[in-house]
Amino acid sequence: MLLADPGTSRSGATIMGGLLAGLSRHAATEFSFFLAIPIMFAATGYSLWKARELLSMADLPVFAIGFVAAFFSALAIVRFLLHYVGRHSFIPFAWYRIVAGLLLLWYFHVNPWTSEVG
């Protein structure tokens, strides 16, 4: 039920679940990244399926370049984050989430969300 909260991230929830299950920070973070792979493939496949009428074989080189660039940049970022998580705690991120949440609460208190247009 906690994941129904819009402010709860899938990766944060799986990492915290792994930590509660006794995994190290590195192992819990790595598990979270591995867990995301099939979800991202499914979401990409679904998006491509929905846009199939707009796509042609001429788009294939652009998709191939984008795939390769995204793969290598994601690989570099994941390696960096795994290295970072192995040496640092999640405390700065927790404080960031608390401060960002409080700022959002304040903002929407000052500027209430209304359905009126104009």
What characteristics describe this protein?
118 residues; mainly alpha; flat
Explain this structure to me?
By secondary structure, the chain is mostly helical. The chain is 72% helix and 0% strand. It contains four helices and no strands. The protein has helices at residues 10-20, 25-50, 60-87, 91-110. It is flat, with a radius of gyration of 19 Å. It starts with 9 loop residues before the first helix and ends in an 8-residue tail after the last helix. The mean pLDDT is 85.
Nearest-integer average pLDDT: 85
Shape: flat
For the termini, the CA-CA separation is 36 Å
Portion of residues within helices: over 70%
SSE-based structural type:
mainly alpha
Radius of gyration, whole Å = 19 Å
What percent of residues are in strands? under 5%
- Give me the count of strands: 0
Stretches where pLDDT is under 50 for at least 5 consecutive residues are: none
Layout of SSEs?
Layout: H1 10-20, H2 25-50, H3 60-87, H4 91-110
Helix pairs in contact: 1-2, 2-3
Short recap of the structure:
The chain has 118 residues and is mainly α. It is built from four helices and no strands.
